[in-house]
Design goal:
The protein is of the alpha/beta class. It has helices spanning 15-29, 50-54, 67-75, 92-101, 138-144, 147-156, 179-197, 199-210; strands at residues 2-7, 33-38, 78-85, 108-109, 119-120, 127-134, 165-171.
Amino acid sequence: MRALVVYCHPKPDSFNAGVLRLVLEKLDAAGAEVKVSDLYADGFQPILSAGELDSYLDCPGNVGPVEREVEKVRWCDTLIFVYPTWWYGLPAMLKGWLDRVLLPDVAFLMPDQHNATIRPGLTHITRLGVFTTCGASWWLTRFIGAPGRRTLLRGVRLLCAKRCRTAFAAHYLMDSSTGPSREAHLKRVSAKLDKFLGLARERGAGSAVSA
């Protein structure tokens, strides 16, 4: 397993940082090779410039400004996002990563004389995980339409392998969270990751053998 974790939060002591640590622990337990794109710590530039837009369809030259990130995307078979939901969607930094990195001939193939619409370009990705926090409640987030979740678990998911496995967990009402609510959420994330990464099956097999 080759996992790319895209992490987006400006504060190293955030609850999201705790979720990231749990994700990395679980990946290590699964024996995965791991690369992390810590967008704030890495100083990622999220703005798609006029020059990049002009060369957006110039493949493969369009990857030049973000070649390091593109190489990570092409390398991984597991893609995991950890971020806070702001205004019901993705932080500007993360949206900028999608804009600049998930390019034509990287994430999707453009229409041509034989195809009227775009085609998936991330078919090497067989697992897609999304772990976030939301200040709003579950019902309000759903009422608005959960645009951040839809962007990743529908939009990006459609570009991945046909049977791509997904995992999602959100701590809602984060602004009024408590120690117990955060602890309970980390337990949910842990269980989701065990299933997502196949650790639950491994433990079950081990129990059967020992019994």
